Amino acid sequence: MKSSWSAFSRPHNPAAKCLHLVRLNTVTSRSELVVATGLSQPTVTRAIAALMSAGYVNERMDLTKSQGRGRPIIPLELAELTPVFAGISVGTTATYIALFDIKGRTIRDADVDLPVADVSQDDFIQHIMAGLNRLMADLDRPLATVGVTTSGAVSPDGVVNAPNLGWHDVNIGDQLNEQFSVPVTVSSAVAAIIGSEIQSGDIIGDAPIMAIFADDSIGAAVTEDKRVLPIAVDRGDLTTHGLLDSIEHGHSLIDAVQLSHTHPPIRSALDRRAEDLGEVAAQLMEAHGASTLVVAGSAFLDDPKAPAVFARTVRQTLPGGADASLRMIPTHREMVRDIARAVALDLVLREPLAVTLP
Fold first, then answer.
1. Are the beta carbons of 234 and 18 closer than 8 angstroms?
2. Alpha helices (H) along the chain
3. How far apart are CA 4 and CA 13, in angstroms?
4. β-pair type (94-100, 84-90)
5. Closest C-alpha among 8, 5, 4, 68 to residue 203
6. Which site among 49, 91, 123, 141 is 20 to 30 Å from 274 CA-CA?
């Protein structure tokens, strides 16, 4: 079942489109933005004027190029903003908190090693707020936005339901907004994977892209009509807990992989899980017309043989699967950093003129 809401979208208004391209280039110009965005010259001129007024873009007068009798070309660059943007990636056993600048560079970060399900929801949120306050201490830069990613389902007002975290109707967004008095975005982790791809410029086009996350929970998301829509995947048997329950060996996926070297039935169970994930992915890709897939999670990282089995199954199951583009986020650290950055910057990059910079 598809959600009706997601934090992320492709750049869809003139200001967001122009800021996206200015941010990805060292310098650019209004004329180059006209070509790249397909917008008219007056529309780009107005968008850049608004972005300059809001403090996002600077003109580089020192790099001005003369064009004979025509107007000189004045290059544009992203401004070095003082505000920082906080991203929080909630994990089952540890949560990553980071501060980023507008370019996505990490200013400060920290890990909070705390199994979420072992503490009350209010206590966990207090730990997270304390961690963010520690990162902000002595920084002398104001906080502009906060973004949070979690597993499970997220409503538009930031209410989370995540069985693997023990969360039911947890309104983390309101509590963070009350504490820090800045806009707060809460998103599913799998939607943030696609959000990261969008912000990096990898999927500025219109072709649908899908993401699959397989770990203690299973989730998917797809781009559709410029938005990113989460997809519920009701396959508890494909989670890490589901796998471990089925084989009744080991306390973690890494344990199961180690045992599989001497226990062929365990290796068979691991392969079946990878194949089933591949079939689910192929079915979803076909249903939504996606030919590009990004995968992440311990199902692919902690079992070295799983990615090949998964990819082979996707290509064999998906009509025209030989042409499918599959990419795996190679480390857990890279994933949590990318999705924390994506949700931290989502609002300011999606609706830059709606954010009042402190």
1. no
2. 14-24, 30-37, 41-54, 121-136, 172-180, 189-200, 240-247, 253-260, 264-288, 298-301, 306-317, 332-350
3. 20
4. antiparallel
5. 8
6. 91
What does the pLDDT look like over 219-240, one tens digit per residue?
A: 999 998 778 988 988 899 999 9
Give CA separation, 98 vs 78, 314, 339, 341, in Å: 21, 35, 11, 8
Residue type at position 355: V
- What's the distance, CA 297 to chain centroid? 13
Q: Give me the mean pLDDT over the 13-37 stretch.
A: 94
- C-beta separation of 81 from 348 below 8 A: no
Terminal alpha carbon distance of the chain: 39
C-alpha span between 314 and 223 (Å, rounded): 19
CB 129 within 8 A of CB 174: no
For residue 294, the surrounding DSSP H or E stretch is strand 292-296
Phi-psi label, residue 223: left if phi above 0, alpha if psi -120 to 50, beta otherwise: beta
Measured from the Cβ of residue 206, the count of other Cβ atoms closer than 10 Å reads 9
DSSP line for 85-103: EEEEEE-SSEEEEEEE-TT
Q: How far is CA 69 from its chain centroid?
A: 46
SS3 content of the chain, % helix, strand, coil (to 5): 45, 25, 30
Tell me the per-residue pLDDT of 51-84, one tens digit each, with 9 for 90 and over: 999 999 999 888 777 665 667 788 999 999 999 9
143 Cβ partners below 8 Å, 6+ apart?
A: 83, 84, 85, 86, 136, 180, 182, 358
Question: Three-state DSSP class for 67?
Answer: strand
pLDDT, tens digit, 9 for 90 and up, residues 247-292: 876 689 999 999 999 999 999 999 999 999 999 999 999 999 998 9
Long-range contacts of 198-203 (CB under 8 A, 24+ apart): 198/8, 198/9, 198/10, 198/11, 198/223, 198/228, 198/342, 199/20, 199/104, 199/341, 199/342, 199/345, 199/349, 200/24, 201/20, 201/24, 203/10, 203/292
